[in-house]
């Protein structure tokens, strides 16, 4: 009996020792100076490119031990406020979305802020590739959270449970409030400027080549009525820009222009964008006045500006409503720049041709003058806009 008791006691002590050793190793953490808690280990997530199937397949030690490039997807949205930690035993390279980003020094940890990666790439996830020595043991890839100097050590359990921030979008509340605001602004114009509203939002009136030059909307482009409708169009354009930004598509080359992190900042961006759109629309009328004087088209300038407003109101309002309906009914839909850019390009080219027909029917003018006039006021701003946007 004493013999069995000694064996049981020795086994119990050994178990306690092993548990203590493993617990200690887990609390030490990972990364530089073990300053990070591991949130996720990509050891079992790596993929390799298979030439036979022309696709990425899961890494299998028996089949892919000689592979030098291992890839995996990194979910940026679900891992905000964490860090990406990379280490290789031999020199290697890090590729993000098939683009070389950094050389990995042997035995050194490279730490990336996932928030910074999200601000740079504006995508829900990115594709990482570690290139270096063959095999899986050469590469270590983790998502970690930095330890606090005043924080008590936490023993990480083997159940792999981790606390992550809830995924949220700062745009959700804004879109609801924005739609209510646009509904209220359109309702205001419909109630107090009923005749003008029906005229601006009439497709039949837009396609009419013979505009009513004596109309109160055409004779006074900068009247209070027209200015209110221009301001309302500015709200619609600003809402559309914020919507496109929320789909992780950069409207401007510099990502610092639109990078709000809370509802108040998004509302501020909406107000600024509305002001910029209003200034551009009003500036366009001034440009038409100047060029109209040079080309002796003063009698057609107001009709030209009215047709531009009519077409823009119908198109951008319809496009905004269509995109919002699609977004709310297909939450998992992948948005692309080409899918959003194509209808805008088609609209501007069709409007350019339509304006040529309208002006040609109103004024006896040489085609060369008319083409140069329309290129300056319609086509060149479009080309410049496409150069610096999207």
From TrEMBL:
Residues 1-23 form the signal peptide. Pfam families: DUF4271. Coiled coil: none annotated. The chain crosses the membrane at residues 174-193, 227-245, 265-287, 308-328, 340-359, 368-389. InterPro entries: DUF4271 (IPR025367). Keywords: Membrane, Signal, Transmembrane, Transmembrane helix. This is DUF4271 domain-containing protein. It comes from Spirosoma aureum. The lineage of its organism: Bacteria, Pseudomonadati, Bacteroidota, Cytophagia, Cytophagales.
């Amino acid at each position: 009996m004493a013999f069995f008791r000694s064996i049981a006691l020795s086994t119990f002590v050994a178990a306690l020792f092993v548990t203590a050793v493993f617990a200690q190793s887990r609390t030490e953490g990972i990364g530089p100076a073990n300053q990070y808690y591991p949130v996720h280990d990509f050891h079992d997530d790596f993929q390799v490119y298979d030439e036979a199937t022309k696709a990425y397949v899961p890494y299998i030690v028996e089949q892919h031990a000689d592979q030098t490039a291992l890839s995996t997807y990194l979910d940026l949205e679900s891992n905000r406020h964490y860090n990406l930690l990379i280490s290789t035993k031999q020199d290697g390279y890090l590729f993000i979305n098939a683009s070389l980003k950094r050389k990995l020094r042997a035995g050194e940890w490279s730490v990336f802020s996932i928030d910074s990666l999200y601000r740079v790439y504006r995508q829900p996830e990115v594709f990482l590739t570690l290139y270096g020595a063959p095999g899986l043991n050469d590469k270590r890839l983790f998502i970690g959270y930095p330890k606090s100097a005043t924080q008590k050590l936490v023993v990480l359990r083997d159940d792999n449970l981790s606390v992550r921030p809830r995924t949220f979008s700062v745009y959700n509340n804004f879109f609801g409030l924005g739609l209510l605001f646009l509904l209220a602004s359109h309702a205001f114009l419909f109630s107090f400027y009923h005749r003008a509203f029906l005229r601006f939002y009439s497709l039949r009136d837009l396609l009419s080549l013979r505009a009513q030059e004596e109309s109160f909307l055409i004779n006074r482009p900068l009247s209070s009525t027209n200015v209110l409708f221009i301001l309302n169009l500015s709200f619609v354009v600003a809402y559309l820009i914020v919507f496109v930004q929320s789909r992780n598509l950069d409207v401007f080359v510099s990502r610092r222009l639109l990078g709000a992190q809370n509802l108040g900042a998004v509302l501020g961006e909406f107000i600024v964008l509305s002001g910029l759109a209003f200034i551009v629309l009003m500036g366009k009328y001034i440009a038409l006045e100047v060029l109209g004087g040079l080309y002796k088209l003063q009698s057609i300038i107001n009709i030209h500006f009215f047709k531009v407003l009519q077409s823009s109101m119908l198109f951008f309002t319809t496009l905004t409503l269509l995109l919002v309906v699609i977004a709310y009914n297909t939450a998992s839909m992948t948005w692309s720049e080409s899918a959003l850019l194509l209808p805008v390009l088609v609209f501007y080219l069709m409007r350019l041709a339509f304006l040529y027909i309208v002006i040609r029917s109103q004024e006896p003018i040489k085609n060369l003058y008319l083409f140069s006039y329309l290129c300056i006021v319609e086509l060149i701003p479009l080309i410049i806009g496409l150069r610096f946007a999207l």
